Amino acid sequence: MRLEVFCEDRLGLTRELLDLLVLRGIDLRGIDIDPIGRIYLNFAELEFATFSSLMAEIRRIAGVTDVRTVPWMPSEREHLALSALLVAMPEPVLSLDTKGRVELANPASCLLFGQSQAKLRNHPVAQLIADFNVQRWLESSPQETHAEHVVVNGQNYLLEVTPVYLEGEHNERVLTGAVAMLRSTVRMGRQLQTMTSQDTSAFSQILAVGPKMRHVVEQARKLAMLSAPLLIVGDTGTGKDLLAHACHLASPRAGKPYLALNCGSIPEDAVESELFGDALQGKKGFFEQANGGSVLLDEIGEMSPRMQTKLLRFLNDGTFRRVGEDHEVHVDVRVICATQKNLVELVQKGLFREDLYYRLNVLTLYLPPLRDCPQDIMPLTELFVARFADEQGVPRPKLSADLSTVLTRYSWPGNVRQLKNAVYRALTQLEGFELRPQD
C-alpha cells in the first residue's frame, strides 16, 4: 500500500507521520520525500477499518492538506522507466562500481556473456572484457568518457565507458561508478549503410519548413535507427502514420515488412487474432508476419485492458501465443505506437496500464498541430495543389495573393489532413486558373 501525503513545509511533520505508523505497529517499507511538498509512504496492506482510521489521523496532522493512495512510489516509477530503457536497448550495457565490478546488466549483456543477472552482479568487468584495462581508467584523473576497440567472444565491439558523478558535501564531483556500452561494429556498419542509402527517401515525403517540424524530423532520423518501442503523439491529422512509416524506412529494418493496425477501428477479439494470429484458422498475426520488421499500433489509447496486458508481455520478451494455442512464438519486431490521446490522463483514470505506459514512453516523438507551424502551411498547400492537379491532368492553378493570409490565420483543427482535403475539394470545383480563399 502506498500513500501520497500533500503537506506544507513544516519542521517535524515527517517525524509525526513516522511516529503515527510506529504507534499503530505499521512496518514502513519505504519513504520518498518530494521537495514540492509531498511525502510518499510504502507499507503492507491494511484492513479497511484500520486503513480508514489511519487516513483520518494523517489528515489531522498540522500541515497536512490531503492524503490519497497511489499505485507507485516516485522511486519505483523511476526504477520502472530505467528498467524499461535498459531492456529496450539492443546493445549490451553494464553499470559498474568504483572498483570495476558489475552492479547492473541489461538482457543484451546477459545474452552476450552467457550469464544471468545474478551471476554477473559483482563480477569484475576485467574478466568479461579482457582488452579493457579498467584499473588504469579508474586511476586516471579526472576520469573522462573513453572509447576503444575490444573483442568479446570473437566479435568486434566499440566499448564506450562513461563516468557517473554525483555532487559531494562541498559541491565537488565524486565518482560513483561508470556505465559501459558495447556497440557491435557490424551493427554500426549496417546502420551507417542504411542511413546513407535509405534515409533520404524515407523522410522525403515529410515536408518540414518551420523549426518545430524540422526538429521533429531530426529527432525521428535518430530514433529510427533504434529497436526500442517508439511512441508518436499528435492530434488527429498531423501525420503520425506517415512519420511512423518513414522511421521504418530509415531503419535497419527497411527491407523487412511494415504493417499497421488501428486499435480503435476493430473489435477486441479481432485485434487479438490480427496481432497474434489464430491457430485454429491457421492464421499468422501481424507480429509474426512482420518478423524482422516493424508494426504500427495506431490509436494505442483505444486498446482494451486485456490486450494491453498481452502487448506488455510481448514487449518484455518478444514472445506470444496464438489464439487457441499454448506454444510460444518468438519474433523480432519493432513496435511503433501512435495516439492522439493523453496517455497520462488515461493512466490516472485507470484506463491505461501504467507499466505499459512507461514501457512505451522510452522513445517519444511529439507532432505539433498545424496551427503551431504557420511556416509549413503554404508549402504544404503548394505541394497538394501540384500533386492533385497532376493527378487530375489539369494545369496547376496560380495561388492568389491573399490566400496565404487566410490559410495561415485559420486554426486547422483537422491539421494537415484537413488542409489536404480542403485543397482537393477546391481543385475539383475550381473554375478558372487561380485558387482564391473563397474556393
UniProtKB/TrEMBL annotation:
SMART domains registered for this protein in UniProt: AAA, PAS
Taxonomic placement: Bacteria, Pseudomonadati, Pseudomonadota, Gammaproteobacteria, Enterobacterales
NCBIfam families according to UniProt: PRK10820.1 (NF008085)
Keyword list, A-Z: ATP-binding, DNA-binding, Nucleotide-binding, Transcription, Transcription regulation
Name of the protein: Transcriptional regulator TyrR
GO biological process, one term: regulation of DNA-templated transcription
Xref: PROSITE patterns: ACT, SIGMA54_INTERACT_1, SIGMA54_INTERACT_2, SIGMA54_INTERACT_3, SIGMA54_INTERACT_4
Keyword Transcription regulation found: yes
Keyword Transcription regulation: yes
Every ACT domain range: 2-72
PANTHER family with a match to the protein in the record: HTH-TYPE TRANSCRIPTIONAL REGULATORY PROTEIN TYRR (PTHR32071:SF3), TRANSCRIPTIONAL REGULATORY PROTEIN (PTHR32071)
Residue ranges of every copy of the Sigma-54 factor interaction domain listed in the record: 206-428
A Pfam family hit: Sigma54_activat
GO molecular function list: ATP binding; DNA binding
